[in-house]
Amino acid sequence: MALRETLRRGDWLTRERVRLWALALAGFSAVAAVVVAATSNGWTDWQGRPLATDFSCFWTAGRFVLEGRPALAFDDAALFALQRATFGPETPFYGWLYPPVFLLVAGLLATLPYPVALGLWLAVTGALYVLSIRAILRSAEDGAAPDPLWLLLVLAFPAVFVTVGHGQNGFLTAALFGGALAILDRRPILAGVLLGLLVYKPQFGLLVPLALVAGGRWRTAAAATATVLALAGLTLALLGPEPWRAVLAASGAVRTTVLEQGAAGWHKLHGVFAWTRFWGGPVGLAYALHGLVALAVAVATAWAWRAPVRPALRSALLLAGAFLVAPHSHDYDLMLLAPALAFLITDGRRHGFAAWEKSLLAFVFVMPLFTRAVAEHALVPVGTIAVLALLIVIVRQCINAAAVAAAPISCHDREHLRSPVAS
C-alpha cells in the first residue's frame, strides 16, 4: 500500500534522485559512444557494420544524387550494391524510406567523407534539438532561464543514445516539431515553416492539419502548406521527376515489406499496428485496430485544439498522438517524446501534476533504454503501452483543464487569483 501511494503521488521523484539517475544515464551513453568510436575504423564498427548503421543509407543515397542518378536511391538492389562496395561485402542492407525531398539533405551530406558527414549531422541536428527544448522551457517560464537541470535531462534522455547509435534523424524531427509548437503563439508563420519542413517524415504529420484547422491556426497552416510545396518544387527542379516516379513505384512494396511484414523487426517498431502484428494478428485486424485508435486520437486532438486547453497540454497531446497514429514509428522516433515530456513537466510545475503522472513521466523518460530488448526477448511492446498510457493521462489533463476554464469564477475566487499568495 505504501509503495502504491508513493508511486501515485510521485514523491519519490526528488530533484537529487532525478539528477543522479540522469547522470547515470548520460554517463552510460557517453561511455558506450566512446567505446564504439574507439573500436571503429572510422567507417565501420567492430562488427563490420557501417558506423551509425542507418546513416549509411543517407550517405549512399546522397552519392547517387551527386552522380546525377537520384532515383537509384529507391532501387534496393542498386543501393545495396553501393553500400557493400563502400563499407564491405558483409554489410547489411539499409533501405531508403524517405520522400525525394530528403535527398537534398542526403546529397549535401555525401559531399563530405563519411565520418565527417556523420559527425556534422549529429552535431547540427543535436544542437537544434537542444535549442528546441530550451525554447519550450523558456516559453513556459515567460522567457526566464529554465532550471539548470534541464540540459542534463535533455542529453540523458535514452532516445538520444538510440538516435546517435543509428545516426538517424530523430534529433531533427524533435527539433522541428517541438520548436514549432514552442513558438506557435508568438511566431505562427515560422512555426508553419518548421512544420512544413517535417515533410521528410510524412507519417508524423497526419494530425497536424487537423490540429491547426481545429485551432483556427490559418497562418500556420498556410505557411506549412507553402513550405511543403516549395520543397517539392525545389526537389523537382534540382533532381527532376525521376525520383518522384521511383517513390510512387516503390510505395506498394515498401508498405508490404516494411509495414505489413515488419522486415525491420516488430520489436523495433511502435504503434497498435505493429503490436497486433507482433503478437501474430492478421494484417486486416492490425489495420482495423490501428484505425480505431487513430480515430480516437484524432477526435481527442481536434477537441483539445478547439477547447480552452492550456497550450502545453495540447502540444504534448499532438506530439504523443502523432507518434502513436503514425503507421511506422521506429525506436529512434521516440525522440518525439522529449518535447512532449518538456511540455508536460513545465505544465505540471505550474498547474500541478495528476495522480500517477510524475511516476509515469519518469517511466516514459527511461523507457527508450530498454523497450527494444524487452520487446525482443519478453514479447512485450513496452514503448507502445507507455505512450498509450501517457496519451490517456494527457487527455484527462486536457479535460480537467477545459472544465476549469469553463467553470464560472466567484468573486471570492477572482480576488484570490489576483492576490500575491495565489500567484
UniProtKB/TrEMBL annotation:
It is found in: Cell membrane. Keywords: Cell membrane, Membrane, Transferase, Transmembrane, Transmembrane helix. It is a multi-pass membrane protein. InterPro entries: GT87. The chain crosses the membrane at residues 20-39, 149-169, 189-214, 221-239, 285-305, 312-329, 378-395. Belongs to the glycosyltransferase 87 family. This is Glycosyltransferase family 87 protein.
